[in-house]
Amino acid sequence: MKCAVLFSGGKDSAFAAYLVKKIGYDISCLISVISENPESYMFHTPSITKVKKQSTVMNIPLLTQKTKGKKEEELKDLENAIYKAKKEFNIDSVVTGSIESAYQASRIQKICVSQKVECFNPLWQKDQFELLNDLIKYNFKIVIIGVFAYPLDRSWLGREINQKFIKDISTLYHEYKINPAGEGGEFETFVLNCPLFSNELKISDFKILGKKYSWKMEIELT
């Protein structure tokens, strides 16, 4: 089955790509929607422009689509991207990293129906602690590049997802109901290495922007 992976550069879309590759899907392309709106309801925004580096080390073509990021209107831009993937790469399915967001999943499903392609969400309803442990098990190197909820602060930026991270986020989950995998938008991630990469990406420089409990790290890669 030839698929396109909706790809943000973060842990969920990268892990979804890894899982479908394992079961025999042919990943024909990655689709990244680049939103001008940092508060987009649908799309990951921190370091989204760095997905090109990831597609290069994955040796998978990248199809990008710009959007103004206006609620609901941005869905038309996603539909255009999926249409292009059908035309250019002859895909018959779209893979997402959705875990719990019914808002995102239902809208992507509707677009896929209209475009006559299958929608596959391999992480759907997966336990979030199990997900974090699987990422470590399968040698994903992931860093936090954005935090957007109390009590997460700028000290979390750049942290790797490892057993210490899981322990600390578990504490916040029990005390503050922080979603352990950031499914509520509490934090965003970027994948520096995984089994799909030919080599590890490294952060050569970064800039931190934000205030209080909304921080992001703009990264440069080598």
Note the main attributes of this structure:
4-stranded antiparallel sheet; alpha/beta; 5-stranded parallel sheet; 9 strands; single chain; putative n-type atp pyrophosphatase, domain 2; 2 domains; 26% strand; 6 helices; 222 residues; Rossmann fold
Helix/strand layout:
Blueprint: E1 2-6, H1 11-22, E2 26-35, H2 51-58, E3 62-67, H3 73-89, E4 93-95, H4 102-115, E5 118-120, H5 128-137, E6 141-147, H6 163-176, E7 187-193, E8 203-211, E9 214-221
Parallel strand pairs: 1-2, 1-4, 2-3, 4-5
Antiparallel strand pairs: 6-7, 6-9, 8-9
Helix pairs in contact: 3-4
> Globular, elongated, flat, extended or rod-shaped: what is the shape?
globular
CATH superfamily of the largest domain: HUPs
Radius of gyration: 16 Å
CATH topology of the largest domain: Rossmann fold
For the record, the CATH architecture of the largest domain stands as 3-Layer(aba) Sandwich
Uncertain parts? none
